Amino acid sequence: MTELEIAQLAAKAAEDKKAHNVVILDLKGLSIIADYFVVCHGNSETQVQAIVDHIKDSAEKAGIVVRGREGYDDARWVLVDLGDVVVHVFHRDEREFYNIERLWKDAPVVAVQ
C-alpha cells in the first residue's frame, strides 16, 4: 500500500467509529516526521479509545505494521504510528487547544475517500 492509501484506510477506520472532523494533511516536503497526518477527534475518552482500536485493527488486517501507540491510557491525545503516516486522535477539548491543523497550515488537505 502507498502512504496515501494507508492514510485513507486510517481515516475511514476513524469515520467508522464516528470520529469527528477527520482530516488528512499531506506533509511531503514540509516535514521529515511523516508524509501524512490523519487528524480527528472523539467526544469522550471511551470514543477516542474505540477509534484508536479500530484504526489499529484495520491497519493490522491490511498487513500494515503498527509501530507504536502513545497516549492510549489517558485518551486525550493518542498517536498511532503507521510509519510514514501518523494518526492523531484527540479528545475534542485537546484538539481545540492544540489545533495542529493551524501549526501545519501550509500542508495541503487531502479529501477522505
Question: Which terms summarize this structure?
Answer:
6 strands, globular, 113 residues, Beta Polymerase, domain 2, alpha+beta, six-stranded mixed beta sheet
Describe the structure in your own words.
There is one protein chain. The chain is of the alpha+beta class and 113 residues long. It has one domain (3-110): Beta Polymerase, domain 2. The protein is built from four helices and six strands. It has a six-stranded mixed beta sheet. Helix 1 packs across helix 2 (45-61). The longest helix is centred in the middle third of the chain and has 17 residues, at 45-61. It is globular, with a radius of gyration of 12 Å. Interacts with ribosomal protein uL14 (rplN). Belongs to the Iojap/RsfS family. This is Ribosomal silencing factor RsfS. It holds the Pfam family RsfS. One of its GO terms (cellular component) is cytoplasm.
CATH class equals: Alpha Beta
Order of helices and strands: HEEHEEEHHE
Distance between the termini: 15 Å
Number of helical segments with 4 or more residues: 4
Average pLDDT taken over every residue: 96
The structural class is: alpha+beta
Number of strands: 6
Outline the biggest β-sheet.
6 strands, mixed
**Helicity, in percent?**
25-40%
CATH-defined architecture: 2-Layer Sandwich
